[in-house]
Every structure is written in structure tokens, then in C-alpha cells.
């Protein structure tokens, strides 16, 4: 039977294999949807434990004792979470509420300004040409008002759920501790079901990609948020904290920053074109500096994905696992690409890992 399959043409093999992969994918999707919360907890806790483990290893490599490094990392992490919970998040929530109240007033002011321009030469010429500018603007204002209201409701809901998810946070913290203490046995047990050499290759690829991707993204998000905050305050842009940190969080997802920049520009355009242009130009300049100057030095070419495949992976991740799927889509797609490249090139032999498996996944810290 094996010899018969090997003798088949490549296209026929793909046609036979695709339905199997499709059915397995559907089954996996059903299982994930059935136990969505459990999968979310485990994945988030694994990512947190993974990042904490990298930080601990870095401190240990600098000569700090392991126990002291663990204590320092956990203490600083809790301090940063508490600081964000009592400062940045309430400020963002307050500014979001104020913005939701100001947008209708800005819309009214923009409509008054439009009414004053109706007698201008440009408007008269366009009206004579059969172009009803007033009707176009009214439809645009109505659509924009509805979209802003919807965005505001979604943002407030997300912010409220984030602040109110005390139980979820506690569960994730407990799982994180368990994964840091006994994560090696947990992941090695799962990976042992994979055939050789993939039980070694996949975790190595995952470790390399996830480490480079998330560390660089977190550094870029933190640095760009602070840079935007300073620039926005200096330029007198309203709701600087909300816009700066919203753009910073959006930078964790490829191309999301451009969408948030466009939304922010449209909102501020209601207040005035000068402040909107200040916001747009400063945000674009900072994005270009981080994306083209800083990001390549931090990330290099570890991802190795075409931008089209990045967009496709983001859409697939959003469909399968929502926001968490969007965050994980790019690194997972990169790992899949590496595996597929190995299969196509016939590189399915054992490898000499540059780092042990326990350095890739959260291991015991005891």
C-alpha cells in the first residue's frame, strides 16, 4: 500500500491528502470551540510563562542567581500589572468615555461649518454640475456617527471585560505558575505523539519564531506607545493617552496600527483638519521609524512570510480563535511554513538543536 501511494503523481497525492487534512481541521475547530475558554487559558498562560522564562534565563546568564531571578521577574511583573491597572487603564477608560461624549458635539460643529461653506464658489460649481455635496456629506456624517458609536460600544465592552475579568486573571496566573514549575513534562507529553523528527523540529522552530516575534513586538509596542504619547502631548493632540496606547496595542498585530491610525484621523477630523493632520503625520512617521528602522534589527527575517500570507493568516486566526487567534496567527503561520518547506525540500531528518527543548518551552524552575 505504501509503495502504491509513493508511485502516485504528486498532484494526486495532494488530492488524496487534502480531504484528510480538511476533516481533521474541521474536527480540531469543533474541539477548540467546545473548550474555547480552556484553550484560551492554556495558550495565554503558556505565552506568559514562555516570556517570563526567557527573562529569567537572561538574568541567570548575566550571573544572577536563579531563585533571585525568579523572584525579581515575578515581582516586577506583578508591579507592572498593578501599575497599569491603577493608572493607564483607568485613564484610557476615562478618555474613551469623554471622547464618546465629544464626538456628537464635533459632528454638530462640522455640520455648522459645512453649512457656512454652501455659498462658496466650489460648492456652487459642484451643485451646478449635478453633484449634491450636501447630501454626500450628510450620508457620510450619518455613517461615520453610527460607526463611531459602534466602535465606542465595542471598546467600552472590551475594556470593561478586561478590567472585570478577575476570575480569568487568577486562573491564568495559576496556570502560568504550574507551567513554569512543570511545563516541561506537560509539553513533552504532547509532543511525544508527533513522529520523529517533528517532535524535535516543531518545538525548536516554535521557540525561535515565538521568541523573536513576541519579544520584538512587545518592545516595539512599549517604545512606540511612549514615543507617540510624548509627541501627541507636545503637538497638543486631544486624548493623547488613549490614542498613543491604542496604537501601541494595535502594533502587536501586523497592519492593525494603520487601521487604528485611519480611525483616529477620521475622528479628529471632526474637531479640525489641523489637529487631524498633526495626528496622522506624526503617527505615520513613528510607524515608519519603528517598522523600517527598529523592527528589522529586532526581528530580522525570522518570520519569512509574504505580506499576503500574513493577512490571510490573520483572517484565519480571527475566524478560528478571535483576538487570541489574531495575535498568534503570524508566528504559527511562520512555523507551518518552515515545516512545509522542510517537507517539500525533503529535510525530514533529525536536526542538531541549537537549544534544548526545555529552553524552547516553559520548563521546571524549581
Compact overview of the structure:
This protein is mainly alpha-helical and about 375 residues long. The protein has helices spanning about 1-5, 10-35, 35-60, 65-115, 120-130, 135-165, 165-190, 200-235, 240-250, 255-270, 275-300, 305-345, 355-360.
Please describe what this structure looks like.
With 366 residues, this protein is an all-alpha fold. It has a domain at 194-263 and 277-345. Helices cover 84% and strands 0% of the residues. Helix 8 packs antiparallel against helix 11 (273-299) and helix 10 (256-269) runs antiparallel to helix 11. It is globular, with a radius of gyration of 25 Å. The relative contact order is 0.10. Residues 352-366 have low confidence and may be disordered.
Amino acid at each position: 500500500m505504501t509503495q502504491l501511494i509513493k508511485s502516485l503523481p504528486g498532484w494526486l497525492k495532494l488530492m488524496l491528502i487534502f480531504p484528510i487534512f480538511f476533516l481533521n481541521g474541521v474536527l480540531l475547530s469543533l474541539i477548540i470551540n467546545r473548550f474555547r475558554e480552556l484553550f484560551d487559558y492554556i495558550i495565554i498562560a503558556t505565552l506568559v510563562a514562555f516570556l517570563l522564562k526567557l527573562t529569567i534565563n537572561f538574568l541567570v546568564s548575566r550571573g544572577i542567581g536563579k531563585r533571585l531571578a525568579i523572584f525579581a521577574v515575578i515581582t516586577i511583573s506583578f508591579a507592572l500589572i498593578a501599575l497599569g491597572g491603577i493608572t493607564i487603564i483607568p485613564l484610557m477608560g476615562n478618555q474613551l468615555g469623554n471622547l464618546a461624549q465629544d464626538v456628537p458635539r464635533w459632528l454638530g460643529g462640522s455640520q455648522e461649518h459645512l453649512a457656512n461653506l454652501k455659498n462658496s464658489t466650489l460648492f456652487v460649481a459642484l451643485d451646478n454640475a449635478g453633484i449634491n455635496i450636501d447630501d454626500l456629506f450628510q450620508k457620510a456624517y450619518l455613517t461615520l456617527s453610527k460607526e463611531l458609536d459602534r466602535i465606542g460600544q465595542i471598546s467600552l465592552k472590551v475594556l470593561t471585560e478586561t478590567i472585570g475579568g478577575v476570575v480569568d486573571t487568577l486562573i491564568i496566573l495559576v496556570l502560568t505558575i504550574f507551567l513554569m514549575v512543570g511545563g516541561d513534562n506537560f509539553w513533552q507529553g504532547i509532543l511525544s505523539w508527533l513522529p520523529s523528527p517533528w517532535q524535535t523540529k516543531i518545538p525548536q522552530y516554535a521557540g525561535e519564531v515565538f521568541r523573536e516575534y513576541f519579544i520584538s513586538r512587545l518592545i516595539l509596542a512599549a517604545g512606540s506607545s511612549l514615543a507617540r504619547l510624548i509627541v501627541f502631548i507636545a503637538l497638543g493632540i486631544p486624548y493623547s493617552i488613549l490614542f498613543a496606547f491604542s496604537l501601541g496595542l494595535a502594533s502587536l498585530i501586523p497592519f492593525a496600527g494603520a487601521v487604528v491610525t485611519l480611525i483616529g484621523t477620521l475622528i479628529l477630523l471632526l474637531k479640525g483638519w489641523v489637529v487631524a493632520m498633526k495626528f496622522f503625520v506624526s503617527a505615520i512617521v513613528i510607524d515608519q521609524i519603528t517598522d523600517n528602522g527598529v523592527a528589522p534589527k529586532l526581528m530580522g527575517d525570522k518570520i519569512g512570510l509574504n505580506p499576503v500570507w500574513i493577512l490571510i493568516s490573520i483572517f484565519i486566526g480571527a475566524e478560528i480563535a478571535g483576538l487570541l487567534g489574531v495575535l498568534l496567527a503570524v508566528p504559527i503561520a511562520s512555523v507551518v511554513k518552515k515545516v512545509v518547506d522542510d517537507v517539500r525540500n525533503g529535510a525530514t531528518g533529525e536536526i542538531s538543536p541549537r537549544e534544548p527543548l526545555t529552553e524552547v518551552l516553559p520548563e521546571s524552575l524549581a
